[in-house]
Write a structure and sequence with these properties.
By secondary structure, the protein is an alpha+beta fold. The protein folds into 3 domains: 9-105, OB fold (Dihydrolipoamide Acetyltransferase, E2P), CATH 2.40.50.700; 125-372 and 429-513, no CATH class; 518-626, Nucleic acid-binding proteins (OB fold (Dihydrolipoamide Acetyltransferase, E2P)). Helix 9 (376-388) runs antiparallel to helix 11 (417-427).
Length: 627
């Protein structure tokens, strides 16, 4: 590996004569470091110190000279800047640029994650200065230019703890029996002008990042939580897609207009679902009951039509971390997808699709949300995987979403359903932003874009600007040439920032899951086998969704052999099988917060005496100290 670290862009020379996918190579040059700053734990020794990186994929310690330690104390979390590392024999050296504190300090785990991912905690001064010049109230001249929807029954439906409300909906019945569905999106582009300091910073961030204890927003709070937020009884500038739909969900007409609304209510998913389930209204819902019931009917018609086209609909389990006032984890709950979620999802999908179709007919530069067809080799590997579980999916010829959808339908209610969905999702390519419209495989849409969340996604902001320029007749040939050059790069930046934010969000949940499990030694849980490795198998707990390892060495009722082809462990004598998707009961035996690891054993096997294990470890530590 030479002087390469995980994530670096490198030049590799192929060595040896081995053929096939498992070729050998030697890294001969590092072209670009993935990170120049790393987060880790500082360890101080007599003559020198070193930083042990938090990222376990970076196996090398970073050596720190005394004059470069910034006064860090042994055991503290730090941010270290890598020096130019050429001599492989000497190992990497660095300089501590920030001391974060001790690992057990409140909030240190998430702060270290933020620093490790390079997420920004504040906005530049030039952005803050620009904010002071933004009007806090809608100007009268702007109202006269827009479609006035202030008297319509527009309202928002969001999570209970949401602060930025960037989409509102409305529904009317026409005399001919058709629906007029309105999707009204906060007009962020009115305030964030292209090329401004706000715009440059928004592109640099690309997206808002939703960690377990905070949001790192794409735009400053004054914009996303106030001026652009569609709060009830406040006049707000919006961009509306108004669709005429038949009762069967067929689109017969539409208009896309700059508008102004005054939201009638701020609803949350839980209270809307409670109304659907019981019919009980609340003060918020009062007067909107009929709107909601008609919306529910229409949304499920749209869902039926979408699924009939072959659109894939993954319903994977998600964990919601409940934090106390001290930032410690109180509970972890599984998020259940509600009918109220479906309602908003279907309306937003319809708006995004309509906008993409509208612009594509004009044949001008635009930014699409695309999803390529899956690679044949990955689908063949997935087919082999499901075959090992006793299922069959034909992947010869061109793979259509409809074929995958029928296969997923056949899994409903099976114990392996959730797991196979996850593996399939990993086998498909990631959706991305691109000026080249190649369609969206997963949704089975020929045209798709992102229009509905300009507060938290930069591509939506770009789409709003292009729509305005088209409507105002300002999309000149010169402007088209300019965007043709810029849009590919914008697509690359925002796609990369989206991947980074998703990884950071997942990691923040994992950190809190491990924290939650720290005092659960000896407790037993139900779970499902979620992965197999040559030294054991992973189990994901039902309620908490935390994942831990059952080492095969802990199974003493037989000698187990790993069948890699069929992805299972088989007992040599008992023929007992442990395979993906199988339900098991486990006991927690080890939780290591630093290494982000949880170890289980199968419950009820009599292997354990946890107090004895812990005492043995204490004796071992004392012995090492004496040595």
């Amino acid at each position: 590996m030479g002087n390469a670290l995980h994530g670096d862009k490198v030049v590799v020379r192929i060595v040896g004569k081995r053929r096939g996918p498992a070729q050998e190579g030697r890294i001969i040059k590092v072209l670009e470091r993935a990170k120049t700053n790393l987060v880790g734990t500082y360890h101080k020794r007599r003559f020198i110190g070193y930083v042990e990186p938090d990222d376990r994929k970076i196996s090398k310690d970073i050596y720190i000279a005394q004059e470069n330690s910034a006064g860090a104390m042994d055991g503290q979390k730090v941010v270290v800047s890598l020096a130019d590392w050429q001599d492989v024999e000497l190992g990497p050296e660095g300089k501590i640029v920030e001391v974060l504190g001790y690992p057990d300090d409140p909030g240190m785990d998430i702060l270290a994650l933020i620093k490790d991912f390079g997420l920004p905690l504040s906005f530049p001064d030039e952005v803050e200065e620009e904010l002071t010049r933004l009007p806090s109230r809608v100007q009268r001249v702007e109202l006269q230019k827009r479609l006035d929807l202030r008297k319509k029954n527009c309202f928002t439906i969001d999570p209970k703890d949401a602060k930025d409300h960037d989409d509102a909906v409305s529904l009317e019945k026409k005399p001919n029996g058709n629906y007029l569905l309105g999707i009204h999106i906060a007009d962020v582009s009115h305030y964030v002008k292209e090329g401004s300091a706000l715009d440059r910073e928004a592109l640099r961030r690309g997206t808002s990042v939703y960690l377990v204890d905070r949001v790192i927003p794409m735009l400053p709070e004054k914009l996303c939580n106030d001026i652009c937020s569609l709060k009830p009884n406040r006049i707000r500038l919006t961009f509306s897609v108004i669709l005429e739909l038949t009762p069967q969900g067929e689109k017969v007409g539409y208009q896309i207009k700059e508008s102004v609304i005054k939201s009638k209510a701020k609803l949350n998913y839980d209270e809307v679902q409670k109304f659907f389930d019981t019919g009980q209204t609340t003060e918020n819902i009062e007067g909107l009951e009929n709107d909601l019931l008609e919306m529910k009917k229409l949304a499920f018609k749209l869902l039926e039509k979408r699924l009939a086209m072959g659109s894939l609909d993954f319903d994977l389990p998600e964990a919601h971390v409940v934090l106390g006032k001290n930032g410690r984890v109180q509970d972890i709950l599984q998020v259940i997808r509600l009918e109220s979620h479906r309602l908003i999802e279907e309306f937003m999908l319809m708006a995004n699709r309509t906008v993409a179709e509208h612009v594509s007919h004009l044949s001008v530069p635009f930014l699409y949300r695309v999803h390529e067809e899956p690679d044949q080799d990955k689908m063949e590997a997935f087919s082999d995987f499901v075959a090992s579980l006793g299922y069959s999916l034909r992947v010869t010829g061109r793979i259509r979403p409809k074929r995958i959808q029928r296969f997923l339908k056949s899994l409903e209610g099976k114990p392996e359903e959730s797991l196979i969905n996850e593996v399939l999702l990993r086998s498909l390519k990631k959706a991305r932003y691109s000026p080249e419209n190649i369609g969206h495989f997963g949704l089975a849409f020929s045209h798709y874009t992102h229009f509905t969340s300009p507060i938290r996604r930069y591509p939506d902001l770009v789409v709003h600007r292009i729509l305005k320029e088209l409507q105002d007749g300002k999309y000149s040939f010169k402007r088209q040439r300019q965007l043709s050059r810029r849009l590919p790069r914008i697509g690359e930046i925002t796609s990369e920032r989206e991947r980074l934010s998703e990884e950071a969000e997942r990691e923040s949940i994992k950190i809190k899951q491990i924290e939650f499990m720290q005092d659960k030694l000896g407790e037993q849980y139900q779970g499902v086998i979620s992965g197999l490795v040559p030294f054991g198998f992973f189990v994901r707990l039902d309620s908490i969704l935390a994942e831990g390892l059952v080492r095969i060495s802990s199974l003493d009722d037989d000698y187990y052999l790993f069948d890699e082809r069929k992805q299972r462990w088989v007992g040599r004598h008992t023929k007992k099988v442990y395979k993906l998707g199988e339900r098991v009961k486990v006991q927690v035996v080890r939780v290591n917060k630093e290494q982000k690891e949880i170890d289980f054993v199968l419950a009820g096997k009599g292997y354990l005496d946890i107090p004895r294990r812990r005492k043995k470890r204490k004796r071992k530590i004392k012995k090492e100290k004496r040595r």
